[in-house]
Request: fold
Amino acid sequence: MNDEETVARARRGDEAAFAELIRRHHAWVMGLCASTLGDRAQAEDAAQDIFLKAYRSLERFQGTASFSTWLHRIAVNRCLDLLRARARRKTESWDALLEDEGERIHQLLAAPPDEERKREDADLVARVMARLPPAYRMALTLREVQGLSYAEIAEAMSCSLDAVKARLRRARQVFQERLRHLTGSMSV
Amino acid sequence: MDPRYDSRQAENPEWARIAAVFLAQPARPTATETEAFVAKFMDRIRPEQSPVPEAVAPWPWALWRWATPAMGFALATSLALLLQPGSEPGDPAELLLTGGEAGSQVQEASQLREPTTDDMLALAMEKL
Reply:
Protein backbone atom coordinates (compact mmCIF):
# COMPACT_ATOMS: atom_id res chain seq x y z
CA MET A 1 0.00 0.00 0.00
CA ASN A 2 1.44 3.43 -0.98
CA ASP A 3 1.47 6.61 1.11
CA GLU A 4 -1.67 8.02 -0.53
CA GLU A 5 -3.79 5.00 0.40
CA THR A 6 -2.30 4.83 3.89
CA VAL A 7 -2.98 8.55 4.44
CA ALA A 8 -6.60 8.05 3.30
CA ARG A 9 -7.02 5.27 5.88
CA ALA A 10 -5.37 7.35 8.59
CA ARG A 11 -7.74 10.24 7.81
CA ARG A 12 -10.66 7.91 8.44
CA GLY A 13 -9.30 7.36 11.97
CA ASP A 14 -7.27 4.21 11.37
CA GLU A 15 -4.54 4.35 14.04
CA ALA A 16 -2.60 1.46 12.53
CA ALA A 17 -2.37 3.34 9.23
CA PHE A 18 -0.80 6.36 10.90
CA ALA A 19 1.61 4.09 12.78
CA GLU A 20 2.63 2.65 9.40
CA LEU A 21 3.31 6.17 8.06
CA ILE A 22 5.55 6.83 11.06
CA ARG A 23 7.48 3.61 10.42
CA ARG A 24 8.09 4.61 6.79
CA HIS A 25 9.28 8.14 7.55
CA HIS A 26 10.85 7.77 10.99
CA ALA A 27 14.42 7.33 9.74
CA TRP A 28 14.26 10.42 7.53
CA VAL A 29 12.68 12.65 10.21
CA MET A 30 15.06 11.40 12.91
CA GLY A 31 18.00 11.90 10.55
CA LEU A 32 17.04 15.51 9.97
CA CYS A 33 16.42 16.19 13.67
CA ALA A 34 19.66 14.53 14.77
CA SER A 35 21.72 16.33 12.10
CA THR A 36 20.31 19.77 12.81
CA LEU A 37 19.84 19.56 16.58
CA GLY A 38 22.82 17.37 17.46
CA ASP A 39 21.52 16.03 20.76
CA ARG A 40 19.83 12.62 20.33
CA ALA A 41 17.22 13.11 23.09
CA GLN A 42 16.23 16.52 21.75
CA ALA A 43 16.07 15.07 18.27
CA GLU A 44 13.65 12.37 19.43
CA ASP A 45 11.42 14.93 21.17
CA ALA A 46 11.41 17.08 18.05
CA ALA A 47 10.55 14.05 15.88
CA GLN A 48 7.61 13.24 18.20
CA ASP A 49 6.39 16.84 17.88
CA ILE A 50 6.69 16.67 14.08
CA PHE A 51 4.57 13.52 13.81
CA LEU A 52 2.07 14.94 16.30
CA LYS A 53 1.71 18.08 14.21
CA ALA A 54 1.25 15.93 11.09
CA TYR A 55 -1.37 13.79 12.88
CA ARG A 56 -3.35 16.82 14.04
CA SER A 57 -3.13 18.52 10.63
CA LEU A 58 -3.96 15.43 8.59
CA GLU A 59 -7.49 16.72 7.91
CA ARG A 60 -5.98 19.81 6.26
CA PHE A 61 -3.60 17.80 4.06
CA GLN A 62 -4.83 18.54 0.54
CA GLY A 63 -2.85 15.90 -1.29
CA THR A 64 -1.57 18.42 -3.87
CA ALA A 65 2.00 17.53 -2.85
CA SER A 66 3.10 14.07 -1.75
CA PHE A 67 2.80 13.12 1.92
CA SER A 68 6.60 12.98 2.25
CA THR A 69 7.01 16.52 0.86
CA TRP A 70 4.32 17.77 3.25
CA LEU A 71 5.96 15.97 6.18
CA HIS A 72 9.41 17.31 5.20
CA ARG A 73 8.02 20.85 5.34
CA ILE A 74 6.62 20.28 8.84
CA ALA A 75 9.94 18.76 9.95
CA VAL A 76 12.03 21.59 8.47
CA ASN A 77 9.84 24.25 10.10
CA ARG A 78 10.03 22.58 13.50
CA CYS A 79 13.82 22.16 13.36
CA LEU A 80 14.28 25.73 12.13
CA ASP A 81 12.18 27.03 15.04
CA LEU A 82 14.36 25.13 17.50
CA LEU A 83 17.59 26.28 15.81
CA ARG A 84 16.43 29.91 15.86
CA ALA A 85 15.52 29.65 19.54
CA ARG A 86 19.01 28.30 20.25
CA ALA A 87 20.68 30.96 18.10
CA ARG A 88 19.03 33.67 20.22
CA ARG A 89 20.57 32.16 23.36
CA LYS A 90 24.09 31.37 22.15
CA THR A 91 26.94 33.63 23.13
CA GLU A 92 30.08 31.82 21.94
CA SER A 93 31.58 33.44 18.83
CA TRP A 94 33.41 31.72 15.96
CA ASP A 95 36.64 33.35 17.05
CA ALA A 96 36.32 32.19 20.65
CA LEU A 97 35.51 28.66 19.53
CA LEU A 98 38.41 28.49 17.09
CA GLU A 99 40.77 29.89 19.69
CA ASP A 100 39.70 27.31 22.30
CA GLU A 101 39.24 24.27 20.08
CA GLY A 102 41.32 25.05 16.99
CA GLU A 103 43.75 22.20 17.63
CA ARG A 104 41.00 19.62 18.12
CA ILE A 105 39.17 20.81 15.01
CA HIS A 106 42.41 20.59 13.05
CA GLN A 107 42.93 17.02 14.24
CA LEU A 108 39.35 16.15 13.32
CA LEU A 109 39.77 17.47 9.81
CA ALA A 110 43.19 15.89 9.35
CA ALA A 111 42.13 12.41 10.39
CA PRO A 112 40.24 10.19 7.95
CA PRO A 113 36.52 10.36 8.85
CA ASP A 114 35.85 7.25 10.92
CA GLU A 115 32.75 6.51 13.00
CA GLU A 116 34.42 6.13 16.38
CA ARG A 117 36.24 9.43 16.12
CA LYS A 118 33.01 11.19 15.09
CA ARG A 119 31.22 9.86 18.15
CA GLU A 120 34.01 11.02 20.45
CA ASP A 121 34.00 14.51 18.99
CA ALA A 122 30.25 14.85 18.57
CA ASP A 123 30.11 17.76 21.05
CA LEU A 124 32.75 19.66 19.14
CA VAL A 125 30.97 19.07 15.82
CA ALA A 126 27.75 20.33 17.41
CA ARG A 127 29.48 23.47 18.68
CA VAL A 128 30.94 24.23 15.27
CA MET A 129 27.61 23.62 13.53
CA ALA A 130 25.83 25.87 16.02
CA ARG A 131 27.90 28.82 14.68
CA LEU A 132 26.15 28.56 11.29
CA PRO A 133 22.98 30.63 10.74
CA PRO A 134 19.91 28.30 11.00
CA ALA A 135 18.83 28.70 7.35
CA TYR A 136 22.35 27.85 6.08
CA ARG A 137 22.62 24.90 8.39
CA MET A 138 19.23 23.59 7.28
CA ALA A 139 20.02 23.94 3.59
CA LEU A 140 23.37 22.18 4.03
CA THR A 141 21.80 19.35 6.06
CA LEU A 142 19.01 18.78 3.55
CA ARG A 143 21.53 18.68 0.70
CA GLU A 144 24.58 16.99 2.16
CA VAL A 145 23.09 14.71 4.82
CA GLN A 146 19.53 14.03 3.69
CA GLY A 147 20.41 13.98 -0.01
CA LEU A 148 17.51 16.10 -1.30
CA SER A 149 17.59 17.73 -4.74
CA TYR A 150 17.55 21.54 -5.05
CA ALA A 151 13.86 21.40 -6.03
CA GLU A 152 13.00 19.25 -3.01
CA ILE A 153 14.91 21.62 -0.70
CA ALA A 154 13.03 24.57 -2.21
CA GLU A 155 9.71 22.87 -1.46
CA ALA A 156 10.71 21.83 2.04
CA MET A 157 12.04 25.30 2.91
CA SER A 158 9.21 27.12 1.09
CA CYS A 159 11.59 29.22 -1.01
CA SER A 160 12.69 29.55 -4.65
CA LEU A 161 15.22 27.36 -6.39
CA ASP A 162 17.56 30.34 -6.75
CA ALA A 163 17.32 31.04 -3.02
CA VAL A 164 18.32 27.45 -2.28
CA LYS A 165 21.34 27.63 -4.56
CA ALA A 166 22.39 30.96 -3.08
CA ARG A 167 22.03 29.70 0.48
CA LEU A 168 24.03 26.56 -0.22
CA ARG A 169 26.79 28.48 -1.97
CA ARG A 170 26.98 31.03 0.83
CA ALA A 171 26.83 28.38 3.57
CA ARG A 172 29.75 26.44 2.08
CA GLN A 173 31.68 29.66 1.62
CA VAL A 174 31.17 30.73 5.27
CA PHE A 175 32.16 27.29 6.52
CA GLN A 176 35.29 27.12 4.38
CA GLU A 177 36.39 30.67 5.22
CA ARG A 178 36.05 30.08 8.93
CA LEU A 179 37.99 26.86 8.86
CA ARG A 180 40.45 27.82 6.11
CA HIS A 181 43.43 28.29 8.36
CA LEU A 182 42.77 24.82 9.81
CA THR A 183 42.20 23.02 6.52
CA GLY A 184 44.78 25.09 4.59
CA SER A 185 47.68 23.47 6.36
CA MET A 186 46.53 20.03 5.30
CA SER A 187 47.73 18.50 2.08
CA VAL A 188 44.33 17.53 0.71
CA MET B 1 32.67 5.88 4.91
CA ASP B 2 29.95 7.97 3.22
CA PRO B 3 29.86 7.07 -0.52
CA ARG B 4 29.23 10.74 -1.33
CA TYR B 5 32.65 11.56 0.12
CA ASP B 6 34.46 10.41 -3.05
CA SER B 7 32.42 12.60 -5.43
CA ARG B 8 32.82 15.62 -3.15
CA GLN B 9 36.56 14.88 -2.90
CA ALA B 10 36.87 15.11 -6.68
CA GLU B 11 34.90 18.39 -6.93
CA ASN B 12 36.26 20.28 -3.95
CA PRO B 13 38.68 18.46 -1.65
CA GLU B 14 38.56 21.12 1.05
CA TRP B 15 34.79 21.05 1.20
CA ALA B 16 34.78 17.25 1.05
CA ARG B 17 36.88 17.12 4.21
CA ILE B 18 34.64 19.58 6.06
CA ALA B 19 31.41 17.85 4.96
CA ALA B 20 32.75 14.42 5.95
CA VAL B 21 33.37 15.64 9.49
CA PHE B 22 30.57 18.15 10.10
CA LEU B 23 27.81 16.88 7.80
CA ALA B 24 28.09 13.15 8.31
CA GLN B 25 24.99 10.99 8.18
CA PRO B 26 23.71 10.10 11.66
CA ALA B 27 23.18 6.47 12.59
CA ARG B 28 19.96 5.12 11.12
CA PRO B 29 17.42 4.05 13.79
CA THR B 30 17.06 0.31 14.23
CA ALA B 31 13.72 -1.47 13.80
CA THR B 32 13.45 -1.78 17.60
CA GLU B 33 14.03 1.95 18.05
CA THR B 34 11.40 2.73 15.44
CA GLU B 35 8.85 0.46 17.15
CA ALA B 36 9.60 2.08 20.52
CA PHE B 37 9.11 5.49 18.90
CA VAL B 38 5.77 4.42 17.38
CA ALA B 39 4.59 3.00 20.72
CA LYS B 40 5.50 6.22 22.52
CA PHE B 41 3.69 8.26 19.88
CA MET B 42 0.54 6.12 20.12
CA ASP B 43 0.50 6.51 23.92
CA ARG B 44 0.72 10.24 23.38
CA ILE B 45 -2.24 10.49 20.99
CA ARG B 46 -4.53 8.02 22.76
CA PRO B 47 -5.97 10.54 25.27
CA GLU B 48 -6.89 12.76 22.31
CA GLN B 49 -8.93 9.95 20.78
CA SER B 50 -10.96 9.18 23.92
CA PRO B 51 -14.66 9.39 22.97
CA VAL B 52 -15.48 11.18 26.24
CA PRO B 53 -12.99 13.93 27.03
CA GLU B 54 -11.86 13.87 30.66
CA ALA B 55 -13.09 17.42 31.24
CA VAL B 56 -16.71 16.33 30.63
CA ALA B 57 -17.86 13.75 33.21
CA PRO B 58 -20.67 11.29 32.44
CA TRP B 59 -24.06 12.91 33.24
CA PRO B 60 -25.31 10.72 36.18
CA TRP B 61 -22.23 11.55 38.21
CA ALA B 62 -22.43 15.22 37.23
CA LEU B 63 -26.13 15.17 38.29
CA TRP B 64 -25.42 13.62 41.68
CA ARG B 65 -22.69 16.12 42.39
CA TRP B 66 -25.20 18.98 42.57
CA ALA B 67 -28.46 17.05 43.18
CA THR B 68 -27.44 15.66 46.60
CA PRO B 69 -26.88 19.02 48.34
CA ALA B 70 -29.91 20.48 46.55
CA MET B 71 -32.16 17.71 47.84
CA GLY B 72 -30.77 18.08 51.38
CA PHE B 73 -31.40 21.80 51.29
CA ALA B 74 -34.97 21.28 50.06
CA LEU B 75 -35.71 18.79 52.87
CA ALA B 76 -34.25 21.09 55.53
CA THR B 77 -36.31 24.02 54.23
CA SER B 78 -39.52 21.95 54.26
CA LEU B 79 -38.97 20.86 57.87
CA ALA B 80 -38.18 24.42 58.96
CA LEU B 81 -41.43 25.68 57.40
CA LEU B 82 -43.51 22.94 59.05
CA LEU B 83 -42.03 23.51 62.49
CA GLN B 84 -42.30 27.32 62.33
CA PRO B 85 -44.26 28.71 65.46
CA GLY B 86 -47.08 31.37 65.36
CA SER B 87 -49.73 29.47 63.42
CA GLU B 88 -53.46 29.34 64.43
CA PRO B 89 -53.66 27.66 67.92
CA GLY B 90 -56.95 26.05 67.13
CA ASP B 91 -55.60 24.04 64.26
CA PRO B 92 -55.50 20.43 65.54
CA ALA B 93 -52.61 19.46 63.29
CA GLU B 94 -50.62 22.44 64.46
CA LEU B 95 -51.41 21.59 68.09
CA LEU B 96 -50.19 18.05 67.62
CA LEU B 97 -47.01 19.15 65.93
CA THR B 98 -46.10 22.04 68.17
CA GLY B 99 -47.02 20.41 71.49
CA GLY B 100 -45.25 22.98 73.75
CA GLU B 101 -46.90 26.37 74.23
CA ALA B 102 -50.09 25.66 72.36
CA GLY B 103 -50.40 22.34 74.21
CA SER B 104 -50.38 24.09 77.62
CA GLN B 105 -53.27 26.30 76.51
CA VAL B 106 -55.25 23.23 75.60
CA GLN B 107 -54.45 21.75 78.97
CA GLU B 108 -55.59 24.93 80.76
CA ALA B 109 -58.82 25.01 78.77
CA SER B 110 -59.54 21.39 79.61
CA GLN B 111 -59.05 22.10 83.33
CA LEU B 112 -62.04 24.65 83.53
CA ARG B 113 -65.09 23.10 85.26
CA GLU B 114 -68.60 24.02 86.56
CA PRO B 115 -68.60 25.93 89.99
CA THR B 116 -69.64 23.79 92.97
CA THR B 117 -71.81 24.83 96.01
CA ASP B 118 -68.67 25.43 98.03
CA ASP B 119 -67.37 27.77 95.36
CA MET B 120 -70.62 29.77 95.44
CA LEU B 121 -70.53 29.97 99.27
CA ALA B 122 -66.94 31.14 99.29
CA LEU B 123 -67.79 33.85 96.76
CA ALA B 124 -70.72 35.05 98.95
CA MET B 125 -68.51 35.17 102.06
CA GLU B 126 -65.95 37.29 100.18
CA LYS B 127 -68.64 39.82 99.23
CA LEU B 128 -69.73 40.12 102.87
About this structure: The radius of gyration of chain B is 49 Å. Chain B touches chain A through 30 residues (CB under 8 Å). The helical segments of chain B are 4-11, 13-22, 31-49, 59-82, 92-98, 100-111, 117-127.
